[in-house]
Amino acid sequence: MLFLRGSEIQGAGWHVTEKAPTVYCRIYYLYSGQVLYRDTNTVKQLKTDHLYVFPSTLPYQMQHDPNDPINCLFLHVDIAPYLLSSLLELPVQQDPFLQHLLEAMDTYIHSHESSEIDSVMEALANALVSYLISKGHLQAPPGKIADTIMYISDHPGEKITVELLSELCGYHKQYYIRLFSAHLGTTPHQYLISYRMKRAFSMLMEGKSVSETADTVGYPELRNFIRAFKKYYGYSPSQVKKYIHYTN
Q1: Which residues contact 155 (CB under 8 A, 6 or more apart)?
Q2: For residue 142, what pLDDT is reported?
Q3: Which letter does DSSP use for residue 139 in this model?
Q4: Considering only 39-48, 85-94, 115-124, which range has the smallest mean pLDDT?
């Protein structure tokens, strides 16, 4: 699933701070700008004409030089049930398939001003994820853990508990939590919250109402959704489009 896409120069206040492992991958194709990336293992100045896929199992942060701001094609993609445990850097000019695919994405984005995710962009994003899988760049967790990751993706609006997920695996609850956390860098409960919040963010960016979004991601009580969203992002659901240009 594609959560967010765009291609533009970012404003002076742009930054990224992922305080916990994400439930998705940011994918950037960098055209220009000075950007410094940091995680617990890596400090790296990003290069132009390179594709970057950012880890889903590590916290990280990025900051650009306001005098040389980042200009990039960006995607936020759900790669479930696959994982990425370190920053991936790919030189685009050395791979014609990758180059043409990214050019197609950029052309399509600039010819469609709406931020809504349509079937064409979904297909292009899926082609990119399939490419990364075929090249062995993404890792698969154990089969039973993968099954629960997909269950969350397929049933975000349903009541999901850690007990239910562990039963789907046939594991004791505490063993399931330890195994899940070891592979994804976060607990099943926190993963579920993060997935719902990212799905909600995408829906709000597409223009869906707050009430429809809340119901879709498993919050029948609107006030509980607003409180959870604000706790997760630091701003309310109605303010999404105001903040997006600082953190995409």
Answers
A1: none
A2: 85
A3: B
A4: 115-124
For 93-126, b where at least 16 C-beta lie within 10 A, e where not — what string?
A: eeeeebbebbeebeeebeeeeeeebeeebeebbe
What are the tens digits of pLDDT across the range 3-33? Answer: 888 899 998 889 999 988 888 899 999 999 9
Within a 10 A sphere around the Cβ of 32, how many other Cβ atoms?
Answer: 13
Q: Is 189 exposed, middle or buried (0-12, 13-18, 19+ CB in 10 A)?
A: middle
SS3 letters across 39-79:
ECCCEEECCCCEEEECCCCCCEEEEEECCECCEEEEEEECC
pLDDT at 115 over 80: no
CA distance 26 to 65: 19
Tokens matching residue 240? 């999404």
Helix or strand or coil: residue 123?
helix
What is the value of pTM for the model shown? 0.88
Among 25-39, 79-93, 192-206, 230-244, the least confident range: 230-244
- Residues 181, 160: Cα–Cα separation, whole Å: 17
**Angstrom distance (rounded) from CA 30 to CA 72:** 4
Give yes or no for a contact between 73 and 105, defined as CB atoms under 8 angstroms apart.
yes
- CA dist list (Å): 37 to 32, 41, 44, 45, 213: 15, 11, 5, 6, 32
The predicted structure's pLDDT at residue 19? 87
Residues 109, 136 contacting (CB under 8 angstroms): no
